Each structure stands twice: as structure tokens, then as C-alpha cells.
Amino acid sequence: MQLIAMLTMLIDHIGYIFFPQDLGWRYIGRIAFPIYCYALVQGHLYTSSKSRYVLRLLIIALIAQIPYNLALDPGGLNVVFTLLLSELVLIALDKLPKLWMGIAAAAPILWVMDHYPLDYNAYGLLLVLIFRYARSYRLVLAHLALNVIYMFYYGWTIQMLSLLPTLVIAYGPELWVYLQKRRVPRWVWWSFYPGHLAVLAIIRLLYYGELPEMDWRSIFVM
């Protein structure tokens, strides 16, 4: 599972940087993010210390930020910040006794995520919530509905391919259990995101002869 997530993310980012006209790379890359969302939820459920889990996410997000700006988006926040906010929402929801309280608590966070330059914006949190609270066919239907909404609202047509890992999670438990057993070392899993972005930024510099100028104004101005 982890290897599939890392490989498809790498393919996605290579296509984004070096082959922007070839959407085939981006289609393959749609597989990665649902796996990371699923892994986040599993980590939330089974970690021995949620505070250390949040700290690890924060450290990775901070380490990855400059490589992300140099390789992919000069003025945005990398996807680990999206996952970090999603984890904080999950922690908050665990403490609330009523569903309506959870909806009320999540709504302003969704608004903030949709108005700040976060990678995957509010879609990321919504998908994490789907993996946390939906099961079986409801998981697939909820993810499909989310993708349809974003396809019509934002034009995210290629995001429909992200349903593939969700289908495996929902309907292929034996295969998924097998994939989960094929784990990579923890340090590889946690370091791959900032590490591969740094390498891609260097390759981009060598390939194009320049790097984009980082612009963090959009992070602080809504």
C-alpha cells in the first residue's frame, strides 16, 4: 500500500513538472492521495500517542514546504498541512458527543481550507472524513459523490480515478490486507514526501536552468 502511494505520487509530480501536457501521468497520480488519507485515518485510530502523531505531521509539513514551493507550487502550502489539519479535526470530533456538533466544528475549518492555498484544499478533509466514518458501499458512494461535486464545481475530471484505491479498500479486503503487510521502513514512509520534492526541485533546476520564485503572500492573504 505504501509503495503504491509513493510510486503513484512520484509519477504524478514528474508528470506535473516535466510533462504538463501529458495527462496520463496525472491520471496515475490520482491513486496516491486516497491512500494517504486512508493511512492518516488508520494512524489516527491506532497510534499510541496522537500528540506525537500530530508533531510528526507538523515536522514533515515544515520540512517539505520549501521543496514543495520550488518543485510544484511557488505560493501554496503542501499536502501534509492538509493532512495535519484533517488530523486535528479528527481529534476534535472524537471529543464531541453529537453529530451536529461535529458538523458545526468542521464547517469553519472546511471554509478556511477552501480559501487558503492548501494542496487539495477542503477536498482533502472531506475525503479523510469519508474514510473515517463510512464503510463498504457507503464509502464508495460517498467518495463518488465527493468527486462528482468537485468535477462539476472545480472541473476535477481526472480526480474520478481516485476511486480505484477506495474500491479496493471497500471490496477487496483480502488484497488490501496483503498490501498492508508489505510495509516499507517507517523512516522511508515519513521522509519520502519532502525528500522526493527536494530531488525534483534539483532536477527541475538542472532541466529548466531556473526555479520558480517563491511567493508566500497568498498563504497569509485570503
From TrEMBL:
<feature type="transmembrane region" description="Helical">
    <location>
        <begin position="53"/>
        <end position="70"/>
    </location>
</feature>
<feature type="transmembrane region" description="Helical">
    <location>
        <begin position="100"/>
        <end position="116"/>
    </location>
</feature>
<keyword id="KW-0472">Membrane</keyword>
<keyword id="KW-0812">Transmembrane</keyword>
<dbReference type="Pfam" id="PF05857">
    <property type="entry name" value="TraX"/>
</dbReference>
<keyword id="KW-1133">Transmembrane helix</keyword>
<feature type="transmembrane region" description="Helical">
    <location>
        <begin position="187"/>
        <end position="207"/>
    </location>
</feature>
<dbReference type="InterPro" id="IPR008875">
    <property type="entry name" value="TraX"/>
</dbReference>
<protein>
    <submittedName>
        <fullName>Conjugal transfer protein TraX</fullName>
    </submittedName>
</protein>
<feature type="transmembrane region" description="Helical">
    <location>
        <begin position="24"/>
        <end position="41"/>
    </location>
</feature>
